[in-house]
Amino acid sequence: MDKTDSLLSKSELTARLQAELEAAQERERASQKTRRALLAMLEDLEETQVEVEQARHELQSAMDAVQDPIFMHDRDYRIMRANRAYAERTGLDVQQIIGKPYWQLFPKLDAPPLCCIETIEQKQMHEEELNLLNGETFLTRYYPILDHHNHYLYSLHMMQNVSERRRAEQEQRTLSEAFRQASEAMLVLDDEGKVRHINPAFQRLFGYDEIEISSQSISLLTAPEREATIQPPAVLEQLRKHGLWQGEVLRRAKDGAVIPVLLNASAIRNHRDEITGFINLYLDLRQIKQAESSLRESEEQFRAMSSAAQDAMLMLDDDSLIVFWNEAATRIFGYQGDEVIGQNVHLLLAPEHYHAAYRAGWPDFAKNGRGAAIGQVLELEALHKSGHTINIELSVAPVQIKQRWHAVGILRDISERKLAERKLRNVLRAHRTLSACNTLLVHSSGEQKLMSDMCRAIVELVQ
């Protein structure tokens, strides 16, 4: 009995030990499996960390590759991440700006912009243009970044420098307005010579509106063949060769009228120096031509009058130089016009004894148009080309031309009149002498006294 019990106890013990051993082995296998799982998780975590770090690096590289400033900030507007372009704008390194309120760095503001605040509150993208004190303009876009529960995480700012674009747009608006308001007629053609744009002045000058002339050939303005002028096709040919052309031409308006114009034409080129079109400016010459015709008529009338005049007509500038000399002046003084133009009239025609008065009085006339001879008729002496002295009658009037005083002189040769006056005075003197002698002869009481009285009377009359 005791022996049997002992054998059972050993058998049970062996079974228990075997069971415990198997349980221990099972636990070991489970532990190894757990360790392998943990090792796998650690490896996955390390790979994830590498991927995250790689993603961060790629994100930073992508941000740095953008030339415009980009940064992220939290709800307190503190910078979380920024690209190199943004850091350069702040004047600091990227690490130095992390955690600082962006609006204190760039752009420097008194507080965060309202659009930025609304982006956080409304969880919607906003954009606005920020005009900086240095004249730059940035188109700023605010993007809210949310989690999967639609909770706000941070904001992404992308700042695009649109200064050049805005300046170009403003310049284009200015040019467009200048084109519209220009007083000269302007026409823009494509590279085939077809009309693309006209301004209101062109419409007023030629009578076409933009709708009816658009896409029409410039040949529409061709003047009738009978008119001697350079026609539009020939001008286009010159522009293709030389890029510029200027000249007076005739062009036909919508109503058929032929209009004289001054044409300034230029080729329009792109950045590859290829001709993409042409621009023509037309200056209406009708009033100018009418004025020129009136001026020519007036000049012809003046030349006819001055040529027919018996009196010399001279014009002097403010340096006392002769600028006009008519045919009568040539007859009176002996000089041809080309001999005297540009000569000093006083040195040429005035005797020496007048020079002091000329030097004293001329500066005041040149400055103010005043002088002792103005408005007077003077009898003077003048020098002929041959050197002899002639008597003249002079009247002078001031004329202001281009802010400079000129003198117009009318000179009449009175030499013959002076000679006749001298002869008349001699005749009168002789008559008075003869009359006095006759009176003495009638009343004389003696020959000796008669001779004495007659000599005394002759001397008194001659004096």
Fill in the keyword field for this structure.
463 residues; alpha+beta; Beta-Lactamase; 4 domains; 5-stranded antiparallel beta sheet; elongated
Q: How many structurally independent domains?
A: 4
Biggest sheet details = 5 strands, antiparallel
Average the pLDDT over all residues and give the rounded result: 86
String of helices and strands = HEEHHHEEEHEEHHHEEEHEEHHHHEEEHH
CATH superfamily of the largest domain: PAS domain
What oligomeric assembly is this protein in?
single chain
Percentage of residues in helical conformation: 40-55%
With strands numbered from the N-terminus, the spatial order across the biggest sheet is 2-1-5-4-3
Q: How far apart are the termini?
A: 210 Å
Q: Strand portion, in percent?
A: 15-25%
CATH architecture label of the largest domain: 2-Layer Sandwich
- Which CATH class of the largest domain? Alpha Beta
Runs in which pLDDT lies below 50 for 5 or more consecutive residues are none
Tell me the number of strands.
15
The CATH topology of the largest domain is Beta-Lactamase
Number of helices: 15
Give the CA-based shape: elongated
- Which structural class do you get from the secondary structure elements? alpha+beta
Compute the CA-based radius of gyration: 55 Å
Pfam families: PAS, PAS_4, PAS_9
GO biological process, one term: regulation of DNA-templated transcription
Keywords: Coiled coil
Organism: Methylomarinum roseum
